[in-house]
Specification:
The complex is a heterotetramer of chains A (about 350), B (about 200), C (about 180) and D (about 190). Chain A is an alpha+beta fold and about 350 residues long. Chain A has 12 helices and 12 strands. In chain A, α2 runs antiparallel to α4. The longest helix of chain A has 28 residues. Chain B has a domain of about 140 residues. Chain B contains 9 helices and 2 strands; from the N terminus they run αααααααββαα. In chain B, β1 and β2 form a beta hairpin. Chain B is globular and about 60 Å long. Chain B has about 200 residues and is mainly α. Chain C is α+β, with helices and mostly antiparallel strands. Helices cover about 40% and strands about 20% of the residues of chain C. Chain C contains 3 helices and 5 strands. Chain C has a 5-stranded antiparallel β-sheet with strand order 1-2-3-4-5. Chain C is elongated, with a radius of gyration of 22 Å. Classes of the chains: A alpha+beta (about 350), B mainly alpha (about 200), C alpha+beta (about 180), D mainly alpha (about 190).
């Protein structure tokens, strides 16, 4: 037992351990970072996807802003209402209602209907492809289809469909907006979940120029603006811009559009049915934009189910309240409650 | 993890499902550097296993009394004690193997597997579980080292554990590339690709 | 108690002390064995490069010895240099007979060349090339000499040859009786 | 060894990651984006230089004279661990951005083989304090060069069409193999055999 060696090594290593222990102890006191415990609590509630939808650099940034009181409590669209409510509880204030939003693809120009004008062999990413003459697709406005949105979606809500267009799983989509910011063409839109009818085209061309590059592109024919009962559409830059507050999602524009450029997010639509109270005044026949009602004057009228799109115009004008909207419940339109 | 992993899983995971090198991607430095021949690779794996088992056991023994803020330096001292022990034991009793492993024996102390397991597992589990985990990880590590060492030795020197296993003409012009660092990177890349293919998980 | 500042320092010092005690024990046990090994390894390596030498006495501590055969008359000297190789210093031991020709070359075991590559310097074919060469003939083919280097380990080969030449310059004055 | 050779040797000829296989774990972990690589390289440069000074002084002042050479491993790694923990606290207090960017990788710098490896090489090469500092700076510049170069490649790999099972780490390894092959070309540049 070589005591001198043991003692010197104990002194050496032990001494060093002592010094480091003391330095760390002092440092942990002096350098302690004063963390507001409310910030930690808020941070714990946030989903932690660091998606930036709230406009702050990740959840840490948002939590710090909320704790310091410089941010609204309901900015976390990903977390939605319950996160907003729990932040409200932590901060002791009432969090405003959060309008859940969802991302929607506003371009239907898949490979089948919108051909490419050259073969693109570069990096398989939309942002790279868009740099090359606006991308390989004949329609330069449309979705390039190389899956950048699918890559940046932190929730895996977007997968690329067979025809080269992204498919958005609305159950997984939290409306964080990463895909909207990432898309070089702006063919993705954040819309409130309650909004059902949306124009699915972003081409600013007109008529033949659109027809040449895409079979389902909006040719700015102005028909939808004319037929819209609520005057919710206005033609701006060869595209019908929809005023979400006025639009009643009736769906008339969807069926009137010659190139089927609108999409309907409602899984199903109700149908109009005329009950015996009908006096045969034929007000509904004139009102129906799709000629879906027939019958002799002063007699019980009948709705042709295949033609009726459930827009509810007839119901509005019927003096005898003889028309009901039946089927696809839960998708009643504003003003046309069945 | 729905059901708490059974004891057996602590061990079995280490070999394939949570193989330290190919799945957890830690402990790459010594794997690439000393897997030039099967014998050296196994020597390194054995030394690393000794340290891993020892440190996992000791760390789980003292985990309740270790203050959170200095846990890393304390773990480090425990690990470096075991490393110095194996370092001098090898020098004394296995000088040939020690000469071959060279600077990589003391570098076991910074082998990410050991501190990684100490921090991630041993600090949170009992002694017996930690021992099983260490054995599992060592077996997994040994397996990868054996594969890497064998492939590189056979390609670069035409021998396996020193015995000629390739035709003479091959040994006159072996694939020297595998001895150099690029060969090691390439080999582990291919191995990782195969593992991905098998587990069909995209890392 | 577990997270108080004092315990933080104490636990660190305690672990260090235990480690220090354990390591010093291991060291004191293995040290003699290691020294023993290198002592008789040294004697073995010296006689290996100067065949026929029975005992050696030190000319310069740790770097040069003169060798006597069983009958007691000088048959040459041995010197040790440690040129810097690829991975670190390489101990090179060279035996010279009285005429200044190399009688043998040994390479130390503790070098840290790349395993499986630089370590090939210890193979007999490489070391035997030096036998019988005088100072001027010690050079690699690449440096217009006669010795061929280890394939893919030119750094190590060149380090050894440079070491030998440096040794000649420093120690050959011992040859003149 | 003159200073320029030590610096060039550590920086290019024997790159710490690609040729000596030290520091490979952070090399693959952090190099997904260029800016985290830059952050990591800065941290490595800082910690490696500091660790070299402290370890060199400890070795030549404390260990060698007292004959405690066998404590080398324990002392060096203890010092580095303490140093990294200290750096972590300072970063957390004053440079919040870098702290959140590096996160997990700060404690892993402690187990970064490159830093401890360099302290050992400094001792094995019997460098003076100045030479050790040069070697450390050269090595961390080599670390930075390798990791930033590789991060740029990996960012490009993200978008290239690779078979699913080779995406991620496998293709990164193959990429590293090619970069290492390129560095192999530097061996014994300017006759440096460091």
């Amino acid at each position: 037992m070589d005591w001198t060696l043991i003692l010197t090594s104990v002194a050496g290593l032990g001494g060093l351990g002592l010094i480091i222990g003391i330095v760390l102890a002092i440092a942990s006191v002096k350098l302690a970072v004063k963390v507001d415990e409310r910030e930690a609590a808020v941070r714990a509630v946030l989903p932690g996807a660091n998606c930036g939808a709230c406009g702050f650099p990740g959840c840490d940034g948002y939590a710090a802003a909320v704790a310091s009181g410089s941010a609204a409590l309901n900015k976390c669209s990903v977390g939605g209402a319950n996160v907003a409510r729990s932040i409200g509880d932590i901060m002791g204030q009432e969090a405003g209602a959060v309008e859940p939003v969802v991302a929607v693809l506003v371009c239907r120009g898949g490979k089948d209907v919108a051909p490419a004008r050259f073969q693109y062999k570069g990096a398989s990413d939309c942002r790279h492809a868009a740099l090359l003459l606006g991308g390989p697709k004949a329609c330069v406005y449309g979705c390039v289809g190389l899956g950048h949105c699918a890559k940046v979606c932190p929730f895996g809500a977007i997968t690329m469909g067979r025809n080269g267009l992204p498919v958005i799983d609305e159950r997984k989509c939290t409306g964080c907006g990463n895909c909207i910011r990432g898309c070089p063409k702006g063919t993705l839109l954040l819309v409130p979940r309650s909004k059902l009818v949306i124009l699915a085209c972003v081409s600013h061309d007109k008529g033949r120029a659109v027809k040449d590059v895409c079979r389902v592109g909006c040719t700015a024919c102005n028909l939808c603006v004319k037929v819209c009962p609520a005057q919710a559409l206005a033609m701006v830059g060869n595209l019908p811009v929809m005023d979400f507050t006025k639009c009643i999602d009736c769906g008339i524009c969807i069926h009137k559009c010659p190139t089927k450029s609108f999409i309907d997010r409602a899984p199903g639509r109700p149908k109009a049915v005329i009950n015996p109270r009908c006096t045969g005044c034929q007000a509904c026949v004139k009102a129906c934009p799709f000629k879906a009602i027939e019958g002799e004057p002063n007699k019980q009228h009948k709705v042709l189910a295949d033609k009726c799109i459930g827009c509810g115009e007839c119901r509005k004008v019927c003096p005898a309240d003889a028309i009901d909207m039946v089927g696809a419940l839960g998708h009643a339109r504003k003003g046309t409650e069945g | 993890m729905t059901s708490t992993p059974t004891r057996w899983q602590y061990f079995a995971d280490g070999i394939i499902k949570e193989n330290p090198v190919l799945i957890l991607m830690i402990g790459l430095c010594p794997t690439l550097a000393t897997s030039v021949s099967a014998r050296d690779a196994l020597g390194m794996a054995a030394a690393t296993s000794f340290v891993l088992i020892g440190s996992n056991v000791v760390v789980s023994l003292i985990r309740k009394v270790v203050p959170g803020s200095v846990r890393i330096p304390i773990f480090i001292i425990v690990i470096s004690t075991f490393v110095t022990i194996i370092d001098y034991v090898l020098q004394a009793y296995q000088p040939a193997l020690y000469r071959v492993l060279g600077v990589f024996v003391p570098l076991i102390v910074v082998n990410c597997i050991i501190l990684g397991r100490a921090e991630a597992f041993a600090y949170r589990h009992g002694v017996f579980d930690s021992l099983l985990d260490a054995l599992g990880k060592s077996a997994g590590y040994g397996l990868v080292m054996l594969v890497m060492g064998s492939v590189r030795e056979i390609l670069a020197a035409g021998t396996w554990f020193g015995y000629a296993v390739t035709p003479a003409w091959f040994r006159t012009a072996p694939v020297l590339f595998m001895i150099f660092p690029p060969g090691a990177f390439l080999l582990i890349g291919i191995l990782k690709g195969i593992v991905n293919r098998l587990t069909a998980s995209k890392v | 108690m577990v997270n108080s500042k004092a315990w933080m320092v104490v636990s660190l010092v305690l672990t260090c002390t235990i480690a220090a005690v354990a390591l010093s024990q291991v060291f004191s046990i293995t040290k003699p064995i290691i020294d023993g090994q290198s002592a008789d390894a040294l004697k073995a390596s010296l006689s290996e490069v100067l065949p026929g030498a029975a005992e050696f006495n030190e000319l310069e501590p740790g770097t040069a010895w003169s060798g006597k055969d069983a009958a007691g008359n000088r048959i040459g000297i041995v010197f040790k240099t440690s040129p810097r190789g690829y991975g670190g210093p390489i101990t090179v031991v060279v035996g010279l007979d009285t005429t200044g020709r190399i009688t043998g070359l040994g390479i130390g075991a503790d070098m840290k060349e790349t395993p499986g590559l630089g370590l090939k310097a210890r193979e007999a074919w490489f070391r035997d090339q030096f036998r019988g060469k005088s100072e001027s003939e010690v050079a690699l083919k690449r440096d217009n000499g006669t010795l061929d280097a280890i394939s893919a380990a030119t750094i190590t080969s060149r380090a050894v040859t440079n070491g030998v030449r440096k040794g000649f310059a420093q120690y050959s004055h011992h040859l003149k009786p | 060894m003159d200073p320029a050779k030590i610096l060039m040797g550590a920086f290019l000829v024997n790159n710490i990651i690609l040729m000596r296989f030290l520091g490979v774990c952070p090399f693959f972990g952090v190099s997904t984006t260029v800016d985290t690589s830059v952050g990591m390289s800065a941290a490595v440069l800082f910690v490696m230089t500091l660790a070299t000074w402290v370890s060199w002084l400890l070795y030549h002042v404390l260990l060698l004279p007292l004959g405690l050479v066998f404590l080398r491993t324990a002392v060096f790694i203890l010092v580095i661990a303490g140093l990294v923990q200290f750096v972590e606290m300072v970063l957390k207090k004053y440079v919040r951005g870098l702290y959140s960017a590096l996160g997990i990788y700060l404690p892993l710098i402690t187990t970064n083989c490159a830093i401890l490896g360099v302290t050992f090489l400094n001792i094995d090469y019997e460098f003076s304090l100045l030479q050790s500092t040069l070697f450390a700076v050269g090595t961390s510049l080599g670390f930075a060069l390798a990791i930033i170069l590789f991060a740029a490649i990996r960012e490009r790999l993200e978008d290239s069409p690779i078979s699913p099972s080779f995406k991620g780490y496998p293709i990164a390894f193959v990429g590293a193999s090619l970069v290492s092959l390129a560095f192999l070309g530097f061996t014994s540049l300017f006759g440096i055999s460091l």
